[in-house]
Amino acid sequence: MLSKIRHFATGRHLADPSTLDVSSIGALFHGRLRECRPAARGTLNICFLADLDGHAVVLKTHLAPDGRESLRREAALAQAAYGGSLVIDYRDAPDPAIGARGWLIMPALRPLGGDMEPEVVRRMAQMFGRRQWLATPDKDDDLALRVREGRVGLQHLHHSGLVDATLSARAARHLAFLEERLDEFPKVVCHGDLGPKNILSGQDGPVAIDWEDAFWGPEGYDFLYWLTFIGNRRHCHRGNLGSSPLGSDAEISVLTLIVVLKSYLSVISGEHINNRISISSRLADIMEV
């Protein structure tokens, strides 16, 4: 999420997907890559489906000219998360426009057969926080950075008339509460964008993809992030809080921070006009959990 906020806040240029030279990555595989076709496009990336030696693979590349290092780090984190059970490759291919373009290559995974239960997501998030990582996020990419960005976002929402003064003050107290207790929360590796679309079905169970927003955060953050999706509203209640080292009060403050950041992103990207629920209602609801 933070990578998208930075993009929309600065208005950086994105490549036109139709201009991407997919043959450049194919040349690196010496003719073994076939049937390459566009698949899903994200905000800052685009994916292609292809056949590599008879196996379906996904090729992912960045649309922002400066996205190569972020994609390289994403590939390293995904490989570190799943070890030998999911082989992730990264290649640099020539690109006349920017010199070199990064490509992440991984097996094509299936969508989940149905909705995930909260306990399954909770265990997945705990696994991320407790494993020994061979690759990690930047040391300064942490919860403190997100709280600072949350303050900026909350101010923007208030000045835009989308959140009134009373609600803004309540949310600001939650951000201040987190800021005061930052040193109390042990830092673990968090996925940072653990939403339903980023969880697919692998050979050994659910697999989290799209690690571009991984950061050093408190254990339990990813599960709380998952709870904030509209489709998971029925799971966002007190009964599903309190199991992380944060404690329930801090968890509600983290939920508030996440909704502030998501709302800020929806406004600066223009997506908020499609929201079924107003930003003020969503923020008030999350603080009443």
Structure description:
- The chain has helices spanning 2-10, 23-28, 68-82, 118-130, 143-159, 165-181, 221-227, 248-269, 279-287; strands at 33-41, 45-52, 55-62, 89-95, 99-107, 187-190, 199-202, 205-208, 215-218.
- It has 289 residues and is α+β, with helices and mostly antiparallel strands.
- The protein has two domains: 12-107, Phosphorylase Kinase, domain 1 (2-Layer Sandwich), CATH 3.30.200; 118-287, Aminoglycoside phosphotransferase (APH), C-terminal lobe (Aminoglycoside 3'-phosphotransferase, Chain: A, domain 2, Alpha-Beta Complex).
- It has a five-stranded antiparallel sheet with strand order 1-2-3-5-4. Strands 6-9 form a two-stranded antiparallel sheet. A two-stranded antiparallel sheet has the order 7-8.
- Helix 7 crosses helix 8.
- The radius of gyration is 19 Å and the shape is globular.
